């Protein structure tokens, strides 16, 4: 194992069930995508352990929900403090197992922790209401209650933030949780559990099980009758499967699935600002986020100028091990990711796309890939319809606003959309016309704990962050008081 000594206290490479650390009978290796070296072995658990974790969460739920909101709030606040006190170690760990540059990892710790802080505060503001009754002797009470045991299945691209974004609101309202982190990045999840334990979270309230294959555990987490809600972030294909598995027991589900984000540059845009936004939204985490731009749509009049400015900046992006100074592009998560990017590039070039820069695996080898820009892209190409999830910027050309909006909306996805413009009428009209859960105007980075994150169409169900993210974990109970 090559995990640095400095991280030994933070990472217990065991599953966390009912406040106990379990070794399991089988293990699998967690590797560093920058060099392929094994970092640690973690338990490879299955259906049986998943049921054990659900049983623990089920047992812990009644006492947890009965605590005062202030008590839950204090515990969450202590968890937040513990995470921020270990920001540097957590960032190192994340770069080691996920590959993102250290500066991005530090940012993710702060971003991920912000959900814990926010929901620690909101815990005290979860309230029902009294409505006018339907007779002089009747009153209508509306209680807001925790939904019950929650399961969370999370992806590898944000090993920390996707966990806190689900767990913090669930815990705040009084739910207990079982987490199944992605097989590529379980160490950050286990470090979070360790910090929650240190913060004093009661046994069984938060459980983490690790598994090399998502399917068996996922089946239990989405079908066990003791579970009332599942929250998933990941691919659209797996999300659909989980949703159908939820049907038998009518579980509530939040789904944060794939995107196909357009980034529209209108001819009145501030081009320098648009290029800044483009770099952040396209190349963050080497293009491996669900809100990363998948397609640039640029208006005729500024097409060449935008392309030149973008290409100049992309050529200067430093690729390398995320722990090295100045690196802004880490490795891709695995070989399959490299192959997908290459397939999209080859397809675009075969169909008449023009290579502006990059285009192939990086000379560093492994899963490093050259940041790529392709011009003259059109709707016949795979990149128009399929999420690349890598460092490829395909640039389409358009003439009218209507054409840009129609093209942006011509997808089953509807997560994030970006556009740059100055005219205020255009800003209003385009914002209203885009069929997306999130629209970012003159800004390349829109994620924050203060806003409702989520998609429409096949990009998902439900919202995370803000007070809307809290409602996902509560049920309303109507109590009729009669005979008054
Ligand atoms: P990605 O392509 O980003 O890896 P996935 O949807 O495959 O997205 O993975 C997201 C999460 O879903 C991971 O934790 C993974 O282990 C889990 N997962 C994968 N397949 C299944 C499945 N059949 N049932 C439940 N969870 C799954």
From TrEMBL:
Keywords: Oxidoreductase. Gene3D superfamilies: Aldehyde Dehydrogenase, Chain A, domain 1, Aldehyde Dehydrogenase, Chain A, domain 2. It comes from Vreelandella subglaciescola. One of its GO terms (cellular component) is cytosol. Belongs to the aldehyde dehydrogenase family. GO terms for molecular function: succinate-semialdehyde dehydrogenase (NAD+) activity. CDD domains: ALDH_F5_SSADH_GabD. InterPro entries: Ald_DH/histidinol_DH (IPR016161), Ald_DH_C (IPR016163), Ald_DH_CS_CYS (IPR016160), Ald_DH_CS_GLU (IPR029510), Ald_DH_N (IPR016162), Aldehyde_DH_dom (IPR015590), Aldehyde_DH_Superfamily (IPR050740), Succ_semiAld_DH (IPR010102). The lineage of its organism: Bacteria, Pseudomonadati, Pseudomonadota, Gammaproteobacteria, Oceanospirillales. This is Succinate semialdehyde dehydrogenase. The active site is at residue 256. The keyword Oxidoreductase applies. The keyword Oxidoreductase applies.
